[in-house]
Predict the 3D structure of the following.
Amino acid sequence: MIARTAEKRLDPTRPVSVWSSQDLYEGRSVKSLTVILRTVGCRWNRCTMCGYASEGAPATAEELLVQYRESMKKLSSETQVVKIYTSGSFLDSLEVPQEARGRILDDLHSRGIKKLVIESRPGYITPELVAECLSNLDTEFAIGLETANDLIREKIIHKGFTFSDFARASQIIHSQGGRVKAYLLLKPPMLSEGAAIRDAISSAQAASKHADMLSLNLCNVQRGTLVERLWERGEYRPPWLWSALEVLKNVPHPIICDPVGAGTRRGPHNCGNCDADISKAIRSHDLTQDAGIFDDLECKCKSAWRKVVELEEQTFGTPLV
Ligand code: SF4
Ligand SMILES: [Zn+2]
């Protein structure tokens, strides 16, 4: 039974996941479709919080196109934004062969999709590939910057590129009229809750100079990662949702945040009583960008969160932020 499930999960002709949701496009909330294609996975595969490698299976160009066509069955006539993710880099030609990428872009263009969002490490972002995307569609290039602090990105997250690499990739994209989204990670391992909040706020300020959109990712404990090992030893706790609000209230707009796994032990969480309300408010903020929605949120656990932030300041070692 387990073997059959695993086999199905790793089938290179089936996408990892496909779902519809709402997204902000030109200031309006519109219908979007998110597709996660199953590829061989990220070639870097070293980030300390990333467990995406377990989703991968080598997929040929033809198999990727089968996955894509299957995913497009969920497209509705109202869908305006399509996000094609791979748990890696859409622009890495060893992960998504040129032929598959070209046919996917052509097809989205012919369907009249208004905006495409893809993800890539900066190293794969070349003027030629950016031009290929933009000649077909208004494209947003999402880059996992995680933090503007090179020390944290390099030594703690093991991301393998610098802030300048991110800025250079943004420049290539902007010079051709494309859009840049920067992912920021709230609470990499080894950071206190307060340091994580400060790092996310200062990162958002620095990244906003090079990005049109920021996306705050709340760290969750993925399988097979260093973060998971620390968490199992009681040395890591995913961020409090109060911390996420603190960041969202204090950063330049626009910023979005999908509280994946909120309220679970492995995901960002508060006390269990208020998690659902706070997640709902965060999702609504994505579409309105009105941080006033957070003002009325209260729970008894807020004072506990404040105490944690204060106590960790005294007990953590050398602050990095
Ligand atoms: S976080 Fe991104 S760059 Fe890092 S290993 Fe995962 S997919 Fe690759
Ligand atoms: Zn609470």
Q: What stands out?
A: DSSP finds eleven helices and eight strands in the chain. Strands lie at 17-25, 28-36, 79-85, 115-119, 138-146, 179-186, 213-218, 255-257. Residues 42, 44-47, 50, 52, 87-88, 121, 144 surround iron/sulfur cluster (ligand 1) (CB under 6 Å). The longest strand covers residues 17-25.
